[in-house]
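Recall that a protein's primary structure is simply its ordered list of amino acids. Everything else, from secondary elements to tertiary packing, is in principle encoded there. The following example makes that idea concrete.
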Amino acid sequence: MRGTASGRSHSASWRICLSLAMMAFGWLAAFRCEGAAAKVKLPRGVVITSESKTHVHAHISDLRLQEYPALTNLHALFTVYYVGAGTTDEKLEALSKLRFTNMVCVVFTDCPTVTDKGIEHLAKINTLTNLGLRQMTMTDVSCQALAERFHLDGINMPKCGRVTVEGLVRVAQSKSLSHFGFSLGKLGQAGLLRILGAAGPKLKRIDLDLDDANEALLDFPAVRQAANAKGISLFAVRKNGVSKF
């Protein structure tokens, strides 16, 4: 069964995935909103980061594997955040077995121990509509799964160095995807144009993570023309923020 969150909530969830996957999460450890779970007994490894009682956001990087069943006390769990090497495939498998009906977004930042197997576990959460996957070790195998086994509205996956242009093309071809974020990296102009040309029917926005070196190699007018031909709004993600390409 699909989640009951409104389209507006899904759109907001994509913006959360995009912005938070671009940031370090150290500050979250010191931020706890007790209002969302004041009457719920939770392990110390769960940090609530929202005040809403109907759309609960929680940082669970430090939650121990054996404590995952306690998450079922958060019936309105909407978004979960993971940061760092403590995030494992086994934890994602445990999360996938909890059968949440309201969870739409999972955000990862710098989780080097999550493999393609972990991404496969996430496919079992059929309410997911958005994923943030910053600096992950996943490969094109995960990209295939993202395109075929998920029904996502938005994916942001900057700095995933093991993913090739083939994997990004496969994600871009997803029939459900409307928002896609990734790093230019070593793709170059040719790789970027391939991805734009392969874009699926619903893809309307791409957020391209740039640095000075790879940005200098782009022919901006040609890239804009290719994006416009597919009806895609292209945005540049730089250190100082996000701007129209």
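Confidence is low (pLDDT under 50) at residues 1-9, 20-37. Residues 7-244 form a domain with the Leucine-rich repeat, LRR (right-handed beta-alpha superhelix) fold (CATH 3.80.10.10).
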